[in-house]
Every structure is written in C-alpha cells, then in structure tokens.
Amino acid sequence: MQVFCDFDGTISVGDTTDLVLTRFAHPEWEFIEQQWLRGLIGSAECMRRQIALLHVTPHDLDELLDTVEIDSGFPAFLSACKAWNVPVTVVSDGVGYFIGRILARHDIAGLPIIANVLTQYQSEDGVTYSISQPFAERNCGTGSGVCKCAVVEAVGGTIYIGDGRSDFCVSDKADIVFAKDKLADHCRRQGIPFIPFNTFTDLLPRITSILSDGARSYRAQTKTLIA
Length: 227
Fold this sequence. Notes:
Strand content: 15-25%
Number of domains: 1
Helix content: 40-55%
Strand order of the largest sheet: 4-3-2-1-5-6-7
Order of helices and strands: EHHHHHEHEEHEEHEHH
Oligomer: single chain
Number of helices: 10
Distance between the termini: 25 Å
Radius of gyration: 18 Å
CATH superfamily: HAD superfamily/HAD-like
CATH topology: Rossmann fold
C-alpha cells in the first residue's frame, strides 16, 4: 500500500503557484489561466508559459513561500503512515521547488516529491525562470506537466488524496480516494467511490482504519461513501 497526495489546496492552505503568480508575474498569467480553464491548452503548456512571466529575486520568492501554511494535521498524518510503514509521496502539477521549500519550513524533510522542476537563470534583465517537466507523458489525456495517472498506475495498492482539477483523471485509477472541494464534486458527478474529508485531522481516523483493517476490505466499504 502506498499513499499519493496532491499538494496545492490539499497539503497547503491555498494554491501556492497562484499565490506566486499573483504577486510576481506579469498580469498575462491570468489570460493564460483562462485558456487552460476553457480547455484551449493543457496544464503543462499553461505552467510553462506562466512561470516564464515571473519577475522576482530568489530572496523575495523564498520570503513569500515562507508565509505559506500547511494543513495543521498533515504532520500527524505522516506519523501515522510511518507507523504503519506506508510510504507517502507528494504528486503535484505544481512546482517542486515551491513544495520542497514550504515543507522544509514546516520541518518536513525527505518526502518524495513528483512535480514540475524549476530552473532559474541570471540574465542582464535579472533572474528569469523556466520549468522542465520530466513526469509528463506524451499521451496524457489532460496534457499535464505531471501525469498523475501514469505515476499512480505504476504502483499497485494506492490511496490518493486530492482536492482539485489536476486530480480528476487520477481519481478512478487509485484503489481508495480521499477527496474534498472540486475533486469531491467530480467524484459525485462521475459516480467514483470516495471518502470525503475537509482536513487531515478528520482524515486521520479513517486512514488509520484502512491501514489496520486492510485496504482491500475497506475499498468495498467506500462504495457506500459516495456523498
């Protein structure tokens, strides 16, 4: 059994990438966002174009990232998974550097992170940024920078935890899904069994029950939990 967990809006309080873009990117990033929301471009292209619009020093970027809070129940959740010897991996269509910086500030180190990779360059006009996408897949149905379906399907026995649009396609690939917000709405519309949650504090007793009872037997129970 392995846990895969989204980051923005799931572990973090709010969307980190949107926060950074709002503060430091040229306003064109919002036009690009609308193109993605309308299905005109995939999220991989959207992210590449938006990150290229950042104009910020590394120091100021880090200062902003250091203000981002995470769900207060997440450390206890990690401790429970460790006690059951269940690995946890962060899988995000966001930016790995942002995620690593935020987790480190909250004393969480060594957690595997699958995300877009940030690179910075010093130029005459200051620091410029780009991302590479080593976890993209040519045949990804949503054109994501990180194909979460490919990540999850490569592992047997998975629990997935998420909240948003980037989690839609993977929600019917995991054995057990914990969902909130837009992902919960999607699962209801599509008839995908899921366990609703709001915070990791209320998720903790449910996942503890899964790990103690065995995921296979518990998966059958989740079919009654489509809310």
